[in-house]
Amino acid sequence: MGFPPRCIGQKIPEGLHVRMNLETGVTEAKLISNDKPKNALKMIEDESNNFPEKTSSESENRKTSYKNYEELKKDFNELNLNPKTDAEILRELIEKHVDISKQKDRDEEEILTILEDLEFLVHQYDNANDFVKMDGFKTIVYHNLNATNSEIKRETLKLLGSSMQNNVNVKIHALETGSVDILLRILALDTDMSVKYRALFALSGLLRDFPYAQLKFVENAGLSVFSKLFESDNLKIQQKMLTLINDLLQEEIDSKKDTKQVEKIKQYEDIQLRKRLIVHNYCDHLNKMIVNSVVIEANDHDIIERCLGALYLMVDDCSSKLTDKSKDIVLSLRNLYRKLSQNESVDGDPDYFGTLYDLSNAIVQRIQKIKVEL
Predict the structure, then answer these.
(1) Burial (CB count within 10 angstroms: exposed 0-12, middle 13-18, buried 19+), residue 293
(2) CA distance 310 to 294
């Protein structure tokens, strides 16, 4: 279902929900109400946008065309323009989902519509908290993740991931109710790669900026699950795992910059992510990713940047395990980006290739230094 863009300066009617889509940068609006006539907004729009110029005779008779208060009240009641709060809509959607789920021949298209509406709402912080308080995880999320319909599972995982974005209260609830194990089981066992992809999206929302969840992830064999996925042929999910690992490693580095956050620093140290990655053959996976990023996605500089970034964060640990082919590729990339930085820009950014040159050059220099030290 598409959403109409919000026009600048346009007043948003009551009951219309608006959000910024962080993936596209587009402002989206959606009318979420099961009891409004479908043409209600159109009726309002027609009333407000189609005022003909008044003739003198029309002006003279204007008083006689006015409707009294009772008539106006009746007209508005017919439109049913009594806006509901987000909390009321959330509760109605949850109750409707529960009712449909109990039916023997349940309407799965209706369930998908409900999940879409809920996902739209939980992007807002307070709505996500209300979703938790209304037992939405148990009655909807965990219930649907046992479904056989892959589309329902995908939409449910999207709902789960969206509810946890930058919301520590929801993350805590997800962790305490077993989300880590559930998501890892999906990543390990589900045969639909699109479901795995959404599970990784939800897992990323849970782990970022939440060291205690990261600890539970590694303690529950999360890196073993990742290692198996790195051995698969799905480059898309491997790139997402690489990005998540990069972010978690960077979090640990950043935590040490604030010496006052003693407890937070200790939490990251307890995870021992870097050491655990080495045990789970992460250096070998990086070798493979570096080669594939050039061979398979030679013109996708964003993917290459992720691989270089991952290697930069782990170069001290992985330098001795890099293959000659990987080292040659990094050297070639350095030469390529030196030339491109002198001649081209990307989307008006003249420093894009310069940044990639600096990154690849730093890796080369570090590898050479480690070799000399050995």
Answers:
(1) buried
(2) 15
